[in-house]
């Protein structure tokens, strides 16, 4: 009998009587990371990595019952050995390993094998059964070296500042924003944070992280700010808030920026290809390295990618229909 199956509530482990990243209320929920399509409201109790705990309390309420665990720590849940391993996706993100009767299952959650300098780097976990996402599971996705992207970003900010423009970077509040802040050149100018970004940062500062930039205070005379960097979530686009930074130039940071026309459609001046996920080649690499014989493909290009895995890698591969978002991340 399969250790993990999909039912109407989420990914279910019958032997252990728990769910992973469920989308409907259940008693026990193991949570891979803090993005809203994986961490939902209404569970009896939550089990997640220590650094996801403050994010869960920020987003779902401080009264939630949460058990924090470390990477590598093994829990015995009704005879199933459960452990969390770094997924390299965002701070606190984990792959969930289940072991029962000499069989190992791995739920990759969202994962990224290229280190971002902020989240604990991805570790390959060998397994028999691997549940993988496929957000960028088409050969057209081929991400550039992040070091080049950061260099471009800093050069653009510097140029904007020298012309008296502010620079607005749109980056998801959890994940991309911390990634960007770790790599911007702090000597170019002041860095201001939208409230949504500052809230996430504050929650993570409580567990020992530190970030560049400061929350935009009510007293700040925005019309006098020049040459600054402002980090805001994509939802800030086309809001009156944005206009208060005039004159500004604006860019979107996302894996989707690799698509032709994406920048124009979003109505931004620049697009920086920066992702919390694997590109095509990295997804393939991860699958081969786990040595799994059975692959279950979730959110993204499930059909195309599972067919590819069957035909190219000669593995068993099926689609796991889940309710995780096939966008790169949430809107906030
Ligand atoms: Zn995610
Ligand atoms: Zn996801």
From TrEMBL:
Signal peptide extent: none
Entry-linked SUPFAM superfamilies: Metallo-hydrolase/oxidoreductase
Domain of life: Bacteria
GO molecular function per UniProt: RNA endonuclease activity
InterPro entries: MBL, RibonucZ/Hydroxyglut_hydro, Xnuc_lig_assoc
PANTHER family assigned to the protein according to its UniProt record, in alphabetical order: BLL1145 PROTEIN (PTHR11203:SF49), CLEAVAGE AND POLYADENYLATION SPECIFICITY FACTOR FAMILY MEMBER (PTHR11203)
Protein name: Putative mRNA 3-end processing factor
